[in-house]
Every structure is written in C-alpha cells, then in structure tokens.
Amino acid sequence: MDSLTHIAIGACIGDLFLGKKIGKKAMLYGAIAASLPDIDFIASFWLSTPDDLMAHRGFTHSFLFGFLFILILAFLFRHRHRVENIPIKTWLIFMGTEIAGHLFLDTFNAYGIGWFEPFSHRRISFNVIFVADPFFSVWPGVAAIALLVLNRNSNKRSKWARLGLIFCSIYLTYCVVNKFKIDRDMRQSLENQGLRYNRYFTTPTPFNNWLWYAAAETDSGFQIGYRSVFDKNQETSFRFFPKKDYLLNPFRDHHDLHELVRFSQGYYTADTSAHGIVFNDLRFGQMMGWQDADAHFVFHYYLQDSDANHLVVQRGRFAHWNWQSIRVFVKRIRGENNSCVKR
Length: 343
Known about the structure:
alpha+beta
C-alpha cells in the first residue's frame, strides 16, 4: 500500500493499543512502526534501477526483518516508557501487529514482496488491490484525523480507531470477492474463445477495484484484456502481444536484464523504440489500455539508454489523462464500452 495508508492504519492501531496509557504518542509510534519496512527507499540513492527494484519490498519486508525489528522496537520503547510500567508482552504484540500488518497488506498489490528473504527470492503478490486505492485508504485516513482532533481522554477515540480499521477490512474483503469473480470470468472467456494459455494473472486498474486488467501467457506471447465487475457481456476482448524474446539475445549476459526478468516473474515482452530495445513488465498494466488496445505498458525499461530509466514502475501512467479520458475510464468501470478500440 502507499505510505500514507500505512501511516494512518498504524496510527489507529497505536491508539487502540496504548492511547489510554501514553496519549497521542501511541499514534506516532504506531505510524513509525507501520512504516518501518519501507526504509528500503534509502537503497535507491546508491543502487542501479534494476537492483533497486529487487531491493524495494525485499529484505525489509521479510519475516526475518520483521521478527528482528519487533524485538528491537519493543525493548527500545519499553525502556523509553519504563515509568508507565507497560509490560514487554504488550510492546511485543503492539509492534508485531504493526509490522505484520504492513507485510500482510503489501502482498495484495502487484509489486510483490520478499517474505522469505534472504533464504528465497520468491516474491509474494495476490494482485487484489491497486497500490493506491482511495476507497480503501479513506477510512483509516478519516479515523486518524479524528484521533488527532479529539482530546486524548475522549471516549470516542476507540470508536473512531475501530471504525477506521473495520471499514477498510470490509472493503479489502470485498476486493477479494471481486478478484475471485474476475478470475472466474477471465478463465471462462479464454476457454470460450479457444485461447490456450499456460498461466495468467488479474490485477485492478488505478484507484478502483471494479475494472481489472488481465494477462494470459501463451507459448509465444500474452493475451491482454480488461473486464469490469459490472460487465454484462460474457466475453472479454483480448489483444495479443508477442513476447519477442529474441530481441533480448544481445543482453543475455547483462546483469540488468537478469534482474528485470526475475522481477517481472516472467510476465514481460520486448520491443523497439527510439531509445533502442525496450523491456516491458506486464504486471503493472498499460497506459489507458481499456481505451486503446495497443497502448504502451506502464513499466518499460530502456536496455540501451540507462539514463532514461530513473522512473520505471509508473512511467507515463497518467501522462495522457484528461477530463475526456477520465470520463471514458468511468464509463468502462460501469461496464460500458467493454471492447477496447485500436486507435
């Protein structure tokens, strides 16, 4: 999830655990603990882009890191608040809930996290919710603001904190239900159209959980399609993108390509551009692909122009958005215009 959401959820949890004992400091401690795994952003200052992609949500999002820092933070804050005589068990459960919550929530995005680092480089991603979904974040956000405004002794504090966490949990459950529905519909549509595939994934489009993007891997490329939970048409339109793996042959011994392939989990294509050979990671979708079936992929890395790769994960995500494209987006979410057009 995005950083602000982690902070808001951490603050709500902090107030529930320790607000009555240490006041609003509990919100601050909760926000810090819930954000700690994202300390890996520091690595971007010295790592290359491909290495930074693997470092982000890597070791600092592992069970080992979580366990070590739960211990460290619990004993550190217990010492700082020894006057309040809060049991170490309470601090351990508090810090464990904060860090475990972060590691759990991040698995629901497309990026994936390294739960098992450094023993295994396998990334876990459930592709259930977009990394920044306002319908998820608004509840803990509003609750955190209310907690900041309310007096530390107000009886309403626990109610606000609980409501913030309960409503975002209900929405996340709703997202899981949508995921199962979309997966079922996609499988059925591929089967009805006689499109054979080896594996596939589905993931939400930006800022919502109703319009989903899907990529089905074939022997020579990928079938890309979009489906809304409100679509009445049983069939989903797919556009085939050849993998063009042969374009990557000159770079087979390059470290950057090795890391990019590993990061993409095999969901990639290659293409050519003015910058030379382009590596596309399909997991992050297209630039308004629900409107233009031939749209470029959001994640694209120029293998021959490293200076142009400072931003790759969300490169050009909103470059061509305007009021007209937003209206098209909303209509597609509502189940209208459920076949992509080639422009």
